[in-house]
Write a structure and sequence with these properties.
Blueprint lengths: L8 H4 L13 H16 L1 H27 L1 H31 L2 E5 L4 H34 L7 H10 L13 H9 L5 H32 L12 E6 L3 H17 L5 E4 L2 E4 H20 L2 H6 L5 H25 L7 H6 L9 H14 L2 H11 L4 H5 L3 H13 L9 H12 L7 H11 L1 H11 L2
Antiparallel strand pairs: 1-2, 3-4
């Protein structure tokens, strides 16, 4: 369940962050560690019991909060997180997942370097429109089909994760979960478009150029190798499920409507105030998702390998993450008076100004191994948590946090939700994907140099 939506969240919920010791952050750290290691170290147990594990860590926050601060304060904090943020967050993800799952790219083309680069570019653009999860789901199978007759094709899936599942989603709140968290916190819809387009063009352009160079070299090397029979011969490419496209446009329209229409009307639910424009947005988005199930052909979803497990997992894990982050946010709001004062000092210059480069790298490094949405939230709060202030006076700091969270989610398989999905689909289709550390070798060699340059150019 997501964070408080207002700048003074800790005070609103009666959680005295300045007196809360650091052990309040242990459930948050434990849950994120479970998410990071569970799929790798105890895969089968994790698949069957991740919901119970998540509930366990959440209980380790809720029960102590009730004991330490009283049931009313604990209930208010959790309900505020659930009703004002988590509900909107999961409804959007559900809608993008459902609607994009009804769009099928059928047929096949030959995966030459230029064709592959073009598909990656299209996917990167789509990622900011329909989300990294939606774009990854729609395009990963077509690009794998285009290259299934090539002996060297793992790099195509790796760069797909870099560009489509991560970097491409940096320009709108629809693109990547951390940016939607920022939107729910009050960041304008087009703020990231206006403030991250240069960084995105630079990093995305460099990574795409590196891919093209590698693919050309490998394609030429394949010329002298024995030919592999193409299991999916080239056929005319067709896009099925076009009825879902206006539904995607409707989702974007609903979000823009909630940003523009402010009737000043709110509804109180168990003491938590919900704005009418937010309720209307969520209702419209949910209705569009359900309509997609009615207008989409079942065969299209089956061809996409569509099932409900990925969104179910995301819903459960994010519920636990943002329950566990409630006391962490309260401590961060205490700033230099809280238990996380050393972290505050690390991202603050001697003059008291935020260190944008430190924000970029710390947000990015943690986003590489933890989920990038809560990582974004932690540093958003660390920078003050006031969206109006961050969009204006500290715009470069918010840009650094946003870029670090989105870009560096590509550094590992567990940095962003679509990464592991693409990995699993590619392996299922016979692609010899590298393991966890093998993938990190690729990301270290390809991504870290442009990140270093981008940090120097934009955030120094």
């Amino acid at each position: 369940m997501l964070l408080p939506a207002q700048a003074l969240a800790a005070e609103e919920h009666g959680l005295p962050g300045q007196t809360m010791p650091l052990w309040w952050a242990l459930p948050f750290a434990g849950l994120l560690l479970s998410i990071a290691t569970g799929p790798l170290l105890f895969h089968h147990a994790w698949e069957q019991h991740y919901g119970k594990i998540t509930a366990f860590w959440a209980a380790l926050v809720i029960v102590p909060l009730a004991v330490a601060f009283g049931i009313p304060s604990a209930t208010e904090a959790v309900l505020h997180a659930l009703l004002t943020e988590y509900m909107s967050f999961i409804i959007l993800l559900f809608a993008l997942f459902t609607i994009s799952g009804g769009i099928l790219v059928a047929g096949n083309i030959h995966g030459t370097p230029l064709v592959n680069a073009g598909l990656l570019l299209i996917g990167a653009v789509l990622a900011s429109i329909i989300g990294t999860t939606g774009a990854s789901m729609i395009l990963i199978r077509p690009i794998l089909r285009a290259n299934d007759n090539r002996p060297f094709n793992a790099h195509v899936a790796i760069f797909f994760i870099f560009l489509v599942s991560n970097i491409g989603g940096s320009l709108t709140p629809l693109g990547d979960p951390p940016l939607f968290v920022g939107f729910l916190r009050g960041v304008d819809f087009f703020w990231t478009t206006a403030n991250l387009w240069q960084e995105t063009l630079f990093v995305g352009g460099v990574v795409l150029a590196v891919f093209l160079a590698i693919d050309i070299i490998l394609h030429r090397r394949e010329g002298g190798a024995p030919k592999i029979k193409d299991p999916t011969p080239d056929t005319k490419v067709r896009i099925r499920g076009l009825a879902n496209l206006p539904l995607l446009a409707g989702v974007i329209g609903a979000i823009l409507l909630s940003a523009i229409w402010k009737p000043g009307v709110s509804v109180s639910v168990l003491g938590v105030s919900l704005e009418l424009q937010d309720l209307a947005r969520d209702a419209i988005i949910l209705a569009l998702a359900l309509l997609s199930l009615r207008v989409s052909y079942k065969s299209h979803r089956e061809a996409n390998g569509f099932n409900w497990e990925p969104i179910s997992e995301v819903a459960k894990l994010f519920a636990g993450i943002f329950i566990c982050i409630v006391p962490v946010v309260a401590i961060l709001k205490a700033g230099h008076d809280g238990a996380l004062a050393p972290l505050v000092s690390l991202v603050t210059s001697p003059s008291g100004e935020p260190n944008d480069l430190a924000y970029f790298w710390l947000t990015g490094v943690l986003s590489s191994f933890l989920d990038n949405a809560p990582t974004y939230l932690v540093f958003f709060e660390l920078a003050g948590g006031d969206p109006q202030h961050l969009m204006t006076s500290f715009a470069s700091t918010l840009a650094a946090i946003s870029a670090g969270a989105v870009f560096m989610g590509a550094n590992t398989y567990i940095g962003n939700a679509p990464n592991f999905m693409v990995y699993a689909i590619a392996r299922h289709r016979g692609v010899k994907m590298p393991g966890f550390f093998g993938y990190m070798a690729w990301s270290g060699l390809v991504l870290i140099p442009p990140f270093l340059i981008a940090g120097f150019l934009f955030f120094r």
